[in-house]
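User: I'll paste a sequence; please echo it back and then give the predicted structure.

Assistant: Echoing your sequence first, then the prediction.
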Amino acid sequence: MNKRSVRSFAVGILFTVSCIGSYYFFIDGQQAQSVDQSIKKLEAEGYVVLSQNHFMELKRTGKERTEASPPETIEKERQEAASTEQPEQIPEQSAPEYQLEVTSGMTSSEIASLLAEQSIIENPSEFELFMNRSGYSTKIQVGTFEIHTDMDYEEIGKLITKN
């Protein structure tokens, strides 16, 4: 390097530093928020702000409550909460299942056709497109798989690729 290129480089660095310094001191005039301003802003957005002492007190009282209550009482409270929150559920009937046998060399289109024949999926081309886009079509494993009618494409893809 000669003198001229070193001087040019130095002038460029000096110019860059002066631009950044000017921006920092003159244009970016916002001061850092105080703790009280930050708390007010967070509370306005719906957050709850606790001091560390208040948090530790709540944590300690929660532990004391748990330790003071026998497990049966806690379980009853959970059951009561679950029964009031959720309406009575109808017992699920098990979905019909199909044993899919994947042999060596089978493609995702062949598997889609088999699943469509058994009414596991409605649209074989849509299933094949899903398998290709998600990368499952190249990872199909040989074996016998239990497929249910209530499974979605993702579940079937993960099952037959063992992902």
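The first strand starts at residue 97 and ends at 102. The chain has a mean pLDDT of 80.
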